[in-house]
Amino acid sequence: MHFQQVQQAFVAHIKNPELPMPEGIAEDRMAVYRELFFNNVQGFVSSAFPVLKSLYPQVRWQALVRQFFIHFACTSPYFLHIAEHFLHFLQQDYQPQAEDPPFLLDLAHYEWAELYLATKQLPQQEQPLAAAQLTEVPLALSELTMLLAYPYPVHQISSEFQPQAAGEVQCYLLYRNRDDEVKFVLINPLTAALLNNLQQAPGSSLMQLVKALAPLVPQLDSDTLLSGASAILQDFAAKGLLVSFQAEQNSLP
Fold it and tell me: Where is the NGO1945-like C-terminal domain (predicted)?
Protein backbone atom coordinates (compact mmCIF):
# COMPACT_ATOMS: atom_id res chain seq x y z
CA MET A 1 0.00 0.00 0.00
CA HIS A 2 1.39 3.39 -0.97
CA PHE A 3 2.03 6.05 1.66
CA GLN A 4 -0.85 8.24 0.48
CA GLN A 5 -3.22 5.28 0.70
CA VAL A 6 -2.03 4.54 4.23
CA GLN A 7 -2.46 8.20 5.14
CA GLN A 8 -6.01 8.28 3.75
CA ALA A 9 -6.93 5.07 5.54
CA PHE A 10 -5.42 6.45 8.75
CA VAL A 11 -7.50 9.65 8.58
CA ALA A 12 -10.66 7.81 7.56
CA HIS A 13 -10.39 5.40 10.49
CA ILE A 14 -9.75 8.19 13.00
CA LYS A 15 -12.86 10.00 11.82
CA ASN A 16 -14.97 6.83 11.64
CA PRO A 17 -13.74 3.94 13.81
CA GLU A 18 -16.12 1.57 12.00
CA LEU A 19 -13.85 1.72 8.95
CA PRO A 20 -10.87 -0.67 8.75
CA MET A 21 -7.59 0.33 10.37
CA PRO A 22 -4.60 0.86 8.10
CA GLU A 23 -2.22 -2.09 8.00
CA GLY A 24 0.85 -2.11 10.17
CA ILE A 25 -0.42 0.14 12.98
CA ALA A 26 -1.12 -1.32 16.42
CA GLU A 27 -4.65 -1.09 17.80
CA ASP A 28 -3.55 0.57 21.06
CA ARG A 29 -1.75 3.31 19.13
CA MET A 30 -4.76 3.89 16.87
CA ALA A 31 -7.00 4.08 19.94
CA VAL A 32 -4.88 6.93 21.29
CA TYR A 33 -5.15 8.83 18.00
CA ARG A 34 -8.91 8.22 17.74
CA GLU A 35 -9.58 9.48 21.25
CA LEU A 36 -7.24 12.46 20.97
CA PHE A 37 -8.62 13.82 17.71
CA PHE A 38 -12.28 13.26 18.50
CA ASN A 39 -12.02 14.63 22.04
CA ASN A 40 -10.34 17.78 20.74
CA VAL A 41 -13.11 18.42 18.21
CA GLN A 42 -15.82 17.54 20.71
CA GLY A 43 -14.26 19.92 23.24
CA PHE A 44 -14.19 22.77 20.72
CA VAL A 45 -17.82 22.21 19.66
CA SER A 46 -19.07 21.81 23.24
CA SER A 47 -17.34 25.03 24.32
CA ALA A 48 -18.84 26.94 21.39
CA PHE A 49 -22.40 25.66 21.89
CA PRO A 50 -22.81 25.16 25.66
CA VAL A 51 -26.57 25.69 25.81
CA LEU A 52 -27.22 23.38 22.87
CA LYS A 53 -25.00 20.71 24.43
CA SER A 54 -26.90 20.96 27.73
CA LEU A 55 -30.13 19.91 25.98
CA TYR A 56 -28.75 16.53 24.88
CA PRO A 57 -27.89 13.38 26.83
CA GLN A 58 -24.13 12.82 26.67
CA VAL A 59 -24.38 9.80 24.36
CA ARG A 60 -26.65 11.64 21.92
CA TRP A 61 -24.39 14.73 21.89
CA GLN A 62 -21.33 12.58 21.20
CA ALA A 63 -23.19 10.90 18.34
CA LEU A 64 -24.07 14.29 16.84
CA VAL A 65 -20.47 15.52 17.07
CA ARG A 66 -19.24 12.21 15.67
CA GLN A 67 -21.52 12.61 12.67
CA PHE A 68 -20.07 16.07 12.12
CA PHE A 69 -16.54 14.73 12.56
CA ILE A 70 -17.11 11.97 9.99
CA HIS A 71 -18.86 13.90 7.26
CA PHE A 72 -17.53 17.46 7.45
CA ALA A 73 -14.07 18.44 6.27
CA CYS A 74 -12.59 20.96 8.69
CA THR A 75 -9.76 22.77 6.94
CA SER A 76 -8.64 24.82 9.95
CA PRO A 77 -7.76 23.93 13.57
CA TYR A 78 -8.81 27.42 14.72
CA PHE A 79 -11.51 27.24 17.39
CA LEU A 80 -13.84 29.73 15.72
CA HIS A 81 -13.55 28.02 12.34
CA ILE A 82 -14.49 24.64 13.82
CA ALA A 83 -17.56 26.23 15.42
CA GLU A 84 -18.51 27.81 12.09
CA HIS A 85 -18.05 24.48 10.31
CA PHE A 86 -20.33 22.81 12.87
CA LEU A 87 -23.00 25.44 12.30
CA HIS A 88 -22.76 24.94 8.52
CA PHE A 89 -22.98 21.18 9.03
CA LEU A 90 -26.24 21.58 10.95
CA GLN A 91 -27.63 24.03 8.39
CA GLN A 92 -26.64 22.23 5.19
CA ASP A 93 -25.93 18.54 5.76
CA TYR A 94 -27.55 17.34 8.95
CA GLN A 95 -30.96 15.67 8.82
CA PRO A 96 -32.78 16.56 12.07
CA GLN A 97 -34.02 13.64 14.12
CA ALA A 98 -37.22 13.33 16.10
CA GLU A 99 -35.35 13.87 19.37
CA ASP A 100 -33.73 17.10 18.17
CA PRO A 101 -35.28 20.35 19.46
CA PRO A 102 -37.28 22.27 16.83
CA PHE A 103 -35.16 25.36 17.50
CA LEU A 104 -31.87 23.53 16.83
CA LEU A 105 -30.69 25.77 13.99
CA ASP A 106 -31.80 29.02 15.60
CA LEU A 107 -30.10 28.31 18.93
CA ALA A 108 -26.94 27.08 17.20
CA HIS A 109 -26.75 30.25 15.09
CA TYR A 110 -27.31 32.47 18.14
CA GLU A 111 -24.53 30.76 20.11
CA TRP A 112 -22.19 30.96 17.12
CA ALA A 113 -22.98 34.69 16.75
CA GLU A 114 -22.03 35.28 20.39
CA LEU A 115 -18.70 33.54 19.84
CA TYR A 116 -18.14 35.38 16.55
CA LEU A 117 -18.59 38.80 18.17
CA ALA A 118 -16.51 37.84 21.21
CA THR A 119 -13.52 37.03 18.99
CA LYS A 120 -13.94 39.49 16.11
CA GLN A 121 -10.96 41.68 15.31
CA LEU A 122 -11.54 45.14 13.84
CA PRO A 123 -9.34 46.33 10.96
CA GLN A 124 -9.10 49.75 12.60
CA GLN A 125 -10.23 51.56 15.72
CA GLU A 126 -13.83 52.80 15.70
CA GLN A 127 -14.80 56.24 16.98
CA PRO A 128 -17.98 56.06 19.10
CA LEU A 129 -20.42 58.93 18.71
CA ALA A 130 -21.93 60.94 21.53
CA ALA A 131 -25.68 61.37 21.58
CA ALA A 132 -25.27 65.09 20.82
CA GLN A 133 -23.57 64.25 17.49
CA LEU A 134 -26.49 62.35 15.98
CA THR A 135 -27.77 65.29 13.96
CA GLU A 136 -24.31 66.57 13.02
CA VAL A 137 -22.37 63.74 11.37
CA PRO A 138 -22.93 60.71 9.09
CA LEU A 139 -23.85 57.68 11.18
CA ALA A 140 -22.67 54.07 11.17
CA LEU A 141 -23.41 51.02 13.25
CA SER A 142 -20.41 49.50 14.99
CA GLU A 143 -18.96 46.40 13.36
CA LEU A 144 -19.16 44.81 16.79
CA THR A 145 -22.93 44.45 16.41
CA MET A 146 -25.21 41.92 14.74
CA LEU A 147 -28.92 42.16 13.94
CA LEU A 148 -30.63 38.81 14.49
CA ALA A 149 -34.18 37.50 14.32
CA TYR A 150 -35.56 34.09 15.29
CA PRO A 151 -39.04 32.59 15.72
CA TYR A 152 -37.96 31.35 19.16
CA PRO A 153 -36.79 33.28 22.26
CA VAL A 154 -33.29 31.83 21.99
CA HIS A 155 -31.96 33.93 24.87
CA GLN A 156 -34.27 32.08 27.28
CA ILE A 157 -33.71 28.52 26.10
CA SER A 158 -32.24 26.15 28.69
CA SER A 159 -32.71 22.61 29.90
CA GLU A 160 -35.71 23.95 31.89
CA PHE A 161 -37.26 25.96 29.03
CA GLN A 162 -37.56 24.42 25.59
CA PRO A 163 -40.37 25.85 23.40
CA GLN A 164 -41.83 23.23 21.09
CA ALA A 165 -43.38 25.50 18.47
CA ALA A 166 -42.30 28.65 16.68
CA GLY A 167 -43.95 31.84 17.79
CA GLU A 168 -43.64 35.58 17.35
CA VAL A 169 -40.33 36.57 15.80
CA GLN A 170 -37.84 37.84 18.35
CA CYS A 171 -35.48 40.59 17.14
CA TYR A 172 -32.10 41.12 18.76
CA LEU A 173 -29.24 43.54 18.59
CA LEU A 174 -26.21 41.57 19.69
CA TYR A 175 -23.15 43.65 20.54
CA ARG A 176 -19.77 43.66 22.26
CA ASN A 177 -19.44 46.41 24.82
CA ARG A 178 -16.45 48.45 25.96
CA ASP A 179 -15.46 45.71 28.41
CA ASP A 180 -15.43 43.17 25.56
CA GLU A 181 -18.52 41.45 26.94
CA VAL A 182 -21.14 40.21 24.45
CA LYS A 183 -24.61 41.48 25.33
CA PHE A 184 -27.97 41.67 23.60
CA VAL A 185 -30.95 43.99 23.46
CA LEU A 186 -34.40 42.77 22.51
CA ILE A 187 -35.75 45.21 19.95
CA ASN A 188 -39.07 45.60 18.17
CA PRO A 189 -39.42 45.14 14.39
CA LEU A 190 -39.47 48.89 13.74
CA THR A 191 -36.20 49.40 15.61
CA ALA A 192 -34.78 46.42 13.74
CA ALA A 193 -35.78 48.05 10.46
CA LEU A 194 -34.17 51.34 11.51
CA LEU A 195 -30.89 49.64 12.40
CA ASN A 196 -30.98 47.46 9.30
CA ASN A 197 -31.31 50.60 7.14
CA LEU A 198 -28.26 52.05 8.86
CA GLN A 199 -26.35 48.80 8.46
CA GLN A 200 -27.19 48.66 4.76
CA ALA A 201 -26.45 52.33 4.17
CA PRO A 202 -23.62 53.42 6.49
CA GLY A 203 -23.03 57.14 6.33
CA SER A 204 -26.74 57.97 6.42
CA SER A 205 -27.92 60.99 8.36
CA LEU A 206 -30.63 60.80 10.98
CA MET A 207 -33.11 62.47 8.61
CA GLN A 208 -32.32 60.00 5.83
CA LEU A 209 -32.95 57.08 8.18
CA VAL A 210 -36.27 58.55 9.28
CA LYS A 211 -37.31 59.15 5.68
CA ALA A 212 -36.51 55.54 4.76
CA LEU A 213 -38.53 54.32 7.75
CA ALA A 214 -41.61 56.44 7.05
CA PRO A 215 -43.31 54.10 4.50
CA LEU A 216 -43.33 51.30 7.12
CA VAL A 217 -45.37 53.36 9.58
CA PRO A 218 -47.64 55.70 7.57
CA GLN A 219 -49.78 56.22 10.68
CA LEU A 220 -46.96 58.19 12.34
CA ASP A 221 -46.26 61.78 11.39
CA SER A 222 -42.68 62.83 10.65
CA ASP A 223 -42.15 64.63 13.95
CA THR A 224 -43.24 61.62 16.00
CA LEU A 225 -41.08 59.30 13.92
CA LEU A 226 -38.08 61.62 14.22
CA SER A 227 -38.51 61.87 17.97
CA GLY A 228 -38.76 58.10 18.37
CA ALA A 229 -35.79 57.37 16.11
CA SER A 230 -33.68 59.98 17.91
CA ALA A 231 -34.44 58.44 21.31
CA ILE A 232 -33.56 54.94 20.09
CA LEU A 233 -30.29 56.02 18.50
CA GLN A 234 -29.33 58.11 21.53
CA ASP A 235 -29.69 55.00 23.68
CA PHE A 236 -27.48 52.99 21.34
CA ALA A 237 -24.97 55.83 21.15
CA ALA A 238 -24.74 55.74 24.96
CA LYS A 239 -23.88 52.04 24.68
CA GLY A 240 -21.11 52.87 22.19
CA LEU A 241 -22.85 51.17 19.28
CA LEU A 242 -23.02 54.17 16.94
CA VAL A 243 -19.70 55.19 15.45
CA SER A 244 -18.28 57.78 13.14
CA PHE A 245 -18.67 56.82 9.49
CA GLN A 246 -15.32 56.10 7.89
CA ALA A 247 -15.71 56.43 4.12
CA GLU A 248 -12.33 54.84 3.42
CA GLN A 249 -13.06 51.78 5.53
CA ASN A 250 -16.52 51.24 4.07
CA SER A 251 -15.24 51.53 0.51
CA LEU A 252 -12.93 48.54 0.88
CA PRO A 253 -13.94 45.43 -1.10
Answer: 142-236
User: What H or E segment, with its residue span, contains residue 7?
Assistant: helix 3-15
Query: Order of strands, edge to edge, in the sheet holding 182-187?
Result: 145-150, 170-176, 182-187
Q: pLDDT averaged over consecutive 10-residue blocks of the chain (253 residues)? A: 54 58 63 72 94 97 92 68 93 93 98 96 89 89 97 97 96 95 96 96 94 91 92 94 73 41
Question: Which string of DSSP letters, residue by residue, matches 160-216?
Answer: S----S--SPEEEEEEE-TTS-EEEEEE-HHHHHHHHHHHHSTT--HHHHHHHHGGG
pTM of the predicted model as reported, rounded to 2 decimal places: 0.85
Q: Which helix (H) or strand (E) holds 49?
A: none
DSSP state of 147: E
User: How far is 119 from 225, CA to CA, in rounded Å?
Assistant: 36
The answer to whether 190 and 169 have CB atoms below 8 angstroms apart is: no
pLDDT at residue 43, rounded to an integer? 92
CA pair distance 79, 97, nearest whole angstrom: 26
| Domains of the chain and any CATH numbers | 1-100 (no CATH), 124-253 (3.90.930.50)
